[in-house]
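Below is how a single chain appears once it has passed through the pipeline. First comes the sequence as given, then the structure the pipeline wrote out for it. We keep one example in the README because the format questions we get most often are answered faster by looking than by reading.
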Amino acid sequence: MQASRARLEREVVCPFCALLCDDLEVAVEGERLAVRDKGCARAREAFARPLPEDRRPRLRGEPVPLEAAAGRAAELLGSAGLPLFAGLEADLAGLRAVVALAERTGGVVDPMTGEGARAQLRAVQRSGWVAGTLAEARNRPDLVLLVGDGWRAAAPRLFERVLAPAARLDERPRRLLQLGGAPPREPEIEHLPCPEAALAEQVALLRALLRDRPVAAPESLRALADAIRTASYRLLLWATESLPAPAVLVHHLAALSRELNARGRAVALPLASSPGPVTARQLLLWQTGVPDPVGFADGAPEQDPVRWAGERLSAEKAADLLVWIDASGFRPPPVVSVPAVLLIRAGIDPPFVPEVLIPIATPGLDHPGDLYRTDTVVALRARGLRRTALPSAAEVLAAIAGALPDPAR
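Resulting structure:
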């Protein structure tokens, strides 16, 4: 039997962080994928992860046909009082199917990405900030302030692609500073030590210094304030999911972005670590008019970060069914004491045996899919690279919807 020959795919979109780098070169040989150029360590591992031999759905750990798994999931949804649809790591088509199913079953849609995302949403709703894009961040600022070091884990190629690209539209020298976190390994980034617990206080002090308030502050912070004053185009950048005391810190960062625009230009760019929740929020905004978390229990979509918070619903057992969607293998589902339906990337072992487990295809690897970048202004088409028999999240959710009793409850 003649072995299949590898082909090289260029300008591949990587779906494994919310930067959605679109310059990868990937070798494809049958079902095997290998990043040959441009990818980070996360991309190389995620593309190369082999597919398991056994890709069958499972009921309580026992293999079954897809029809049986979808039917059991539909039974659970039909009898649930308040199903929780979480994770939300899927492409736009899959997330459309999630929202449609949640609306039909009176469920809750919440990616459950943590308090940082909630704090950012509250800041936007209450006072807003001056938001920037990745293109703007790459080309325009002459001073970049990185708050903490979570940016490295959230977007491994951020330095290469955005902070210090080979070419920029603006030829002015750029100054890169990091407040807090571990010392950067890049010599181009100046490090301002700050304990994690003091980051919010230091940013609050920085705001006071920039408003010429008579406050006691370390010389390093005064020097930072002077640097920000003399810059003409400032970028504030942080990683959403790794902020300490996010409610306070995001409030000050949002206010700082607004205040700096009184003298010169300043933009804020929070980094999400994965594209699924970003895509889900954009979808919810245009379909329902409100962002996550959204509850459909009362018939109409309602956004309430307290009432519909997935973490609280799970802890209090108010949600009696968990439907977890993760087509990319980003996060393990939470261990819950209620029945669970897991739609997860093939080859990922969950931390418990769920009622229903259905391995699904990964957008950008196993099928084409549309995903939003972390700056929310661009959706990229990630093309499929290989042929597998794995169903997409949209296909599985459509099968579950088709097995629901009609009319819906």
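The chain has three domains: 7-47, 56-113+275-403, 117-271.

See the next section for the split statistics.
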